[in-house]
Amino acid sequence: MTELLVAIGLIAVLAVALLGLSAGLRGRSNAATCVNHLKQLALYFNVYASDHDGYYPHVARYSAGGVGQHWYYNTELLSLMQIPVSNVWKGKVPFYLCPEDQNGMSTAFGGVRVLSYGFNIAVGSGGSNGYTSGKYIRTRSSQINQPSKLLLACDASEYYLQVKSKAVPKAVYRHRGGANVAFCDGHVAWMEGPLPTSTQDPDLWWPDGVAR
Fold it and tell me: What is the pTM of this model?
């Protein structure tokens, strides 16, 4: 009887250990998938910019001269990706979603997981504090002093990352307490949360590296 209880105890310990190992492997796999998704987004953003005289997509449909579309359903950007707009609303743009994100802005889209990443409003809009004459404008790639240090997009709870408030309220930390971050040169890195504000690290948020 004693031997049976010991065996059962060992099996229970092994089961817990295996579950922990499985969860850890799944987390690493999901983080790697997220990194690949952000690399694809950065690539398409930069291809879009090269096709549009150095300008990145408008982050929001309110942008001056914009096409009435937020970046994630911008028809020209989706055309580069060879993805129909209808796929966005169905949650069928795989690299728009992080596997660790169980929300995906679903509360705004009738329960459908649509998007896990936010676009830096200082890049997709630009100007002083992201505004000029009360309207959003965009940054040109030639205005970016240090593309390897400037955040382009990252894990977020909204489609944009608002930096003019000198805070980072939209970034979320899904991976070991940190966020995966895509930079304007196309590389992706993990950064421990919370991310520094635009005052603490202006090079991370502003094209010219000047705090607003």
Answer: 0.83
